[in-house]
Amino acid sequence: MSLPGTSDDPLELGDLNPELIQARIDARDTGKKGKEPTQLERDKEARLAQKEARLNTGAAPGAKGKQPPPSAPPTTPLPPQVNKSLLLDKIAAYRERFPHLKKRNNNVTAKSTADEILDELHYCELQLGSANGGPNIGATVLYGTMVGIERFTDDYWNPLGLRLTGLGTVAQQNMAEFQPIIDELMIKHNAGAYTSPEWRLALAIGATVVTVHAANSNPEMARAVKSMNQAVNVPKNAKDL
User: Average pLDDT, stretch 115-138?
Assistant: First the structure.
């Protein structure tokens, strides 16, 4: 029995009783649950959430939302593979069909570089596309233009009342006067350096069509074309001339 005025807990250790501690914790949690968060607490929670999102998507090593590294600059594409055998076969076929072709480099072989073989092939095509003595592209275009103007003014529209019958024939007969100017224009505009065989074939067919149409439309043109295609008969007494 304790003395009057004394306590059963002289060391005041009653507050350390586990049951009392748990009761106080439960009372505290119950008070927090029923309390509404203030505006300051809500702002703090929002800032913490934003910070956590930045850390997850930022530069934090090993984070799940880590952004991919910046893409590397595009590398230079590799040059296309060149079939040297095919190019050498083309060069050989050109030289066999056209023996007059010149060589820019020495004889190219399979040991030559791709650039050397391509340059030699381009040189062969350049000579064929700009060969002298063949149908001149500029002259063909000029002749076709003159014939077109002639037919257009005769059959469709001629507000000035021009009589241009035979304009194409006159232009063809005087092509020597136009040729220097045509060549100068083609050199100036780099139009006569090389012409593909497709364009040369199309222009040759076009010139033939225009010539036949003009010959069938103009009797004088027909006689001129016929005389151009006739063989020249050399008299027997002119052999010694």
Answer: 77
